[in-house]
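Example S7 (structure tokens).
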């Protein structure tokens, strides 16, 4: 689990990112979760946007994606979801230490 300090750090890191996945009318599916998990292995931190036509609540979508991709939900702001997952091979982000 991430601490508040780590989440703040990740929110700042994610600020300049553009969403690379979109959740639309069909909501979350297995293939999407798989692709997001793979992209997280490469990037560690990513934004996903929830489109207007999505029939599901953005918080539910965020929870589902985080759980499916075994990632940490950093934040849901507007229609944007920020996910973080520490990479095994491509570790780039160094989180602030917890006391």
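Recovered sequence:
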């Amino acid at each position: 689990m991430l601490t508040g300090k780590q989440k703040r750090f990740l929110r700042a890191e994610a600020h300049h990112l553009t969403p690379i996945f979109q959740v639309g009318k069909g909501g979350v599916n297995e293939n999407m979760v798989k692709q997001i998990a793979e992209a997280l292995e490469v990037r560690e931190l990513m934004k996903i946007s929830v489109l207007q036509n999505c029939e599901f609540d953005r918080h539910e979508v965020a929870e589902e994606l985080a759980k499916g991709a075994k990632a940490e939900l950093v934040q849901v702001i507007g229609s944007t979801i920020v996910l973080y997952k520490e990479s095994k091979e491509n570790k780039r982000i160094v989180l602030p230490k917890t006391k």
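Notes on this example. The longest strand covers residues 45-50.
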